[in-house]
Each structure stands twice: as structure tokens, then as C-alpha cells.
Amino acid sequence: MSNPAALPSIAWIGLGIMGSPMAENLLKAGYPVTGFTLEQDKLDRLAAAGGTAAGSIAEAVKDADVIITMVPASPQVEAINYGPEGILENARSGALIIDMSSITPQTSVDLAKNAAEKGIRVIDAPVSGGEAGAIEAVLSIMVGGEQADFDAALPILEALGKVIVLCGPHGSGQTVKAANQLIVAVNIQACAEAVVFLEKSGVNLTAALDVLNGGLAGSTVLTRKKDNFLNRDFKPGFRIDLHHKDMGIVTDAARNVGAALPVGAVVAQLVASLRAQGDGGLDHSALLRAVERLSGAQV
Predict the structure, then answer these.
(1) Catalytic residue ranges
(2) Residue 3: what are its φ and ψ, rounded to 5°?
(3) Which of the four pLDDT bands, split at 50, 70 and 90, describes residue 218?
(4) How far are the Cα atoms of 47, 143, 220, 292 from residue 33, in angstroms, in the given order?
(5) What is the torsion angle, in degrees rounded to the nearest 10, for the CA atoms of residue 165, residue 170, residue 173 and residue 178?
(6) pLDDT tens digits for range 54-110
């Protein structure tokens, strides 16, 4: 670390599949990072990478200039921010919270309002790119909040992602993230249907996916998930459980603004059916399993 005093101190809350490699990328960029999460092995991993493990949220955030949160859903965002042990009661006035969780736009709006009463600034900054994007620091980061706070956060976000855009006021990042999850789920579903169709037709699947990905049917989804389909490897980069949560967010938010999502609604139900089949812990490319079951395969 060349000159740690020059960089803001960071508290990182939530060191999961995404949070751990992201926090490590900040350490590599020279930022001092103090982390808290519920799993001891993740705290050990942070310490081994040069970070500091804290015993509680309060301890992690008390001296931090910037607090980054990366937890699964709205209830967890509320749990870590509110109450006597939460971020808002224990962070110092003037601190900046960057919430990188994917939650409802309303949760982000409410958090910003409640934090402002304590003199704490907030931006919502959910990400797209999955585990690979987190590890490689090439995430897309969609931000909602004030321009000045976005500008303050930008150098930090640049250590985590590649495309970083302020999309509008508080909650806007979450709205764009919801749209992202809609497109990704429908795209995976279309790929899954194509895979089952191709296999049942007896063509060389590897060759077929290669040529499809070189044309208009090509996509980042197909590039990232091709091997998952070919090898039936559904080790989670992004769990079905989380995509189920996100499809609930987008269908609910769309209903609130009067937007019809007919295909999205169907894919939301297919994601829900996968969970009901016990596949919630698998990667979202496991939508392939739902198509296989519908096509008569014993999965």
C-alpha cells in the first residue's frame, strides 16, 4: 500500500460469492478494507487478502469513510442498516453508503431518506456480470443517487467494474438492475430451449452453439453460460433463488408503473418452478433443467 492515508477507508458488509472477490479487488487497488459478514471462513479469507475482519457491523463501520454493502435482498439491507446495531446508528455523519445489493427500488429510496436524517449519504449501485465479472473487476454498475455522491464513489467503483453509469435519482440503479435481470432470465430461457431442441435433433451441440454465438443470436449470456449448458455444470455463479427474488422485483415494479411484461411473467414462473423442484441453489443456467423436464427428460 503506497500511501493508505490518501485513500478513503472502506467498511464492507456482506462477503458472499460477489462480495468477497470485490472486496479483494479494492485491497489490490490499495484501499484499507474492514469487513463484516456472517461466515467466519469469509472473514478469514478477507484477512488473508490483507483486509481487517470486524466482529460486528458497528465495529466495521464506526471509522469508515465509505460503507459498501452487498447482501442478498431487501430484508437483509434493512437488517444491516436499521436498529441499534445497524449501519445508520453506528456510522459517522458524512459517511457514504454504497449499496451494491439488488433490492426493490423503494427500499433504496427509503434508505436514502432515512440515512439523510443522520447526515449519511447513500447511492444504490447494483451490479451485473456475476461471479466472473466480480473476480475480473469488469462488472456493469448501475447507480441511483446524487451526482456529487456518484462522483465521490466513482474511483472506488472503477476498481470493481468497467461500465459505471449514473441512471437517475435514488432507486434508479435498482430499476435498471431489475430490467437487466428480466433480459438475462429471458435470454437464458431462450438459450435453454434452443439447447434442448438442438440435442433432440441430434446435431453437434458444441458446433451449433459456436455458430449461433457468432451471429445475431449471440449474447454475453450465451458466451458466459455455454459451458454450463454443454457440461450440465450448474455450480452457482448466480443462484436460481436470487433470480427468483429479482423476477419478483421486476414483475412487481412493472405492475406499479403500468408496464406489461408478458414473456417476463412466463419466465418468472419457470424460475419459480425450478425452485419448487429443489433447484434453487443451482446457477440460473439450470433453467435448462426446467425445459428438459417439460420435454420429457428425467432430470
Answers:
(1) 177
(2) -145, 80
(3) very high
(4) 9, 22, 31, 45
(5) -160
(6) 999 999 999 999 999 999 999 999 999 999 999 999 999 999 999 999 999 999 999
